[in-house]
């Protein structure tokens, strides 16, 4: 991958891990540079994701930082190789903004995706008609490419052995489905069909759910492949999205996810709720 095409989501993840390892080891950037017999800027560029790292240099740094966990070392070395991976969205150019490419990378690299939505349905569970309505509201000039990208994303659900989706959908999102009566019914039926897949778990959060008085934004927790899997959080906002990966941030969202899971209807009760909605549609 050319130097000018970086940083990428994967190079930033690797750089962030190496920066945390160096800091935990009590070493300076200059000390790391001395170990690799290179200049200070090279280490800084690696840690900010602006350049990749050779496997031999990565091994030297991991030894320097005292990393003894063999599986963790394997995971970081695999990530270092995947920095150069070319994905189907890599050459999309200006059609896809950087935050969308980051999201696609996280989703592609995950073994488990946990999504909480209170206004719209999760993208992996939308029908094409629903997608077009939602995307046209904010990206009227890019509807077709963004719809095609979202349909492409749904291929993850076919990888039943290596990808799992867990979704909590707040009731208002189910009552704000745009389109004709037929399109609304089709979307709810689609949710019901997808909920029967072995790697898809859908829970409906009812209005009378017993929850603390709080305001939770929509969020997604990505459990990235590896042993143990690394969790990062994605927050959507009007103009894109933001990734949270700091160890002090992520636990707040995993705790909130557990609270939402406990308060939501069970998967079986959620299916009954969806069937009742189909009758009303």
Can you give me a brief rundown of this structure?
This is XRE family transcriptional regulator. The protein is α/β, with parallel strands linked by helices. The chain folds into 2 domains: 3-82, lambda repressor-like DNA-binding domains (434 Repressor (Amino-terminal Domain), Orthogonal Bundle); 93-280, Endonuclease, Chain A, CATH 3.30.870.
Which tags fit this structure?
Endonuclease, Chain A; about 15% strand; 434 Repressor (Amino-terminal Domain); 2 domains; XRE family transcriptional regulator; DNA binding; about 280 residues; 6-stranded mixed beta sheet; 6 strands; alpha/beta
Q: Could you characterize the architecture of this molecule?
A:
The chain has 281 residues and is an alpha/beta fold. The chain has 2 domains: 3-82, lambda repressor-like DNA-binding domains (434 Repressor (Amino-terminal Domain)); 93-280, Endonuclease, Chain A (2-Layer Sandwich), CATH 3.30.870. The protein has 12 helices and 6 strands. The protein has helices at residues 9-24, 29-36, 40-47, 55-64, 70-82, 98-108, 128-138, 143-153, 171-174, 181-195, 250-263, 267-280, and strands spanning 110-117, 164-170, 200-205, 219-224, 230-237, 240-244. A 6-stranded mixed sheet has the order 3-2-1-4-5-6, sandwiched between helices. Strand 4 (219-224) and strand 5 form a beta hairpin. The longest helix is centred in the first third of the chain and has 16 residues, at 9-24. The protein is elongated.
